[in-house]
Amino acid sequence: MTSYALFQSDSPRKCQEYNLVLQAMDFESQVVHQDEHFYLLVDEQRAQQAYRQLKLYVSENAEQEIIEKPLRPLSEGFIGAYLYGLSLLIIAAFESTKAFGLNWQVNGLANSEKIADGEWWRTITALSLHADAAHLVGNIGFGAAFGVLVSQYIGSGAAWFSILLAGAFGNALNAYFYQTLHLSIGASTMVFAALGMLGIFALNDSQSYARRGIRRWAPLAATLGLLGFLGTSGERTDIMAHLTGYISGCIAALLWMIALRRTDHDIPAQSKFALACVGLVTVAWTLALG
To answer: What whole-number distance in Å separates Cα of residue 55 and Cα of residue 64?
Structure first.
């Protein structure tokens, strides 16, 4: 059994109480003592269920306790990251060989005037086009890393669907900002959308509440630092696209937080979110090439 520390305390009393509650509900759990702290361990695969049951138990009793909602396993986001990288590589191959006799870049780039005229699909197709190999590799690497981390909070399917929509919305905002003709390509708008989501989710994490004063804002400050470091360097860097992507990601994360607080449940149907993500990209490219 891979264990997850669902609750910790300096005193064994609460850990033992919660341990009995979970065992009564047929959960595998145990209390361990380490580094002067007591930890309530549960099976990582059932950590989300255990969290909900303990929160329900606490809400029905007089005392208010802070119970940490467990993150998903890091590996849960790997499949989405693989598919993200593979998709960019396939489209890059189609673009470089002008597959099917089509000019993929001309048909798919984010042209601000055409987006304003109703060609919304360009906000999505532009995310999969790249100027050169270095541009492509950088976006695959950083995008996959940020996507895996966002997946810990809301699941892989929901994470990549949200990142895609936030990236598209960032391209739309960028087109609106320029008004006149502006052309852009690259997944970096989506990459910085994932970074924005990560900053908001990390800021709202229960561990952040344990920090006081300015330290609580450290996760968001870290992502803003990365935005400044990664998003402003380079000769052909579209700084505004990076900024609008980051802002769109922050908005997407805030919307998820509102939704989760209202339902207090896990996000269902991760596979449906994943299929919707693939379907949206497919429809966008079909319209672009049609």
So the answer is: 10
What are the extents of the domains in the chain? 3-59, 75-289
Beta strand 37-43 with 3-9 is antiparallel
Is residue 66 over pLDDT 80? no
CA-to-CA distance for 261 and 228, rounded, in angstroms? 31
Query: 134-160: b or e for each residue (b if 16 or more CB lie within 10 Å)?
Result: ebbebbbebbbbbbbbbbbbbbbbbbb
β-bridge mates for residue 111, sequence order: 183
Q: Which CATH superfamily is domain 3-59 in?
A: Hypothetical protein rpa1041 (3.30.70.1530)
**Widest CA span in the chain:** 71
Percent of the chain with pLDDT over 90: 40
Contact 174, 184 (CB under 8 A): yes
Q: Which amino acid is at 270?
A: Q
Is the C-alpha dihedral spanning 270, 266, 215, 217 positive or negative? positive
- Tell me which fold the domain 75-289 belongs to: Rhomboid-like fold (1.20.1540)
Other beta carbons less than 10 A from residue 41's beta carbon: 21
Tally of CB atoms within 10 A around 223: 23
Rg (CA), the chain: 22
Q: How far apart are CA 104 and CA 17, in angstroms?
A: 61
Note the pLDDT of residue 64: 46
Instruction: Name the strand (E) or helix (H) holding 112.
Output: helix 112-116
Residue 8: beta bridge partners?
39
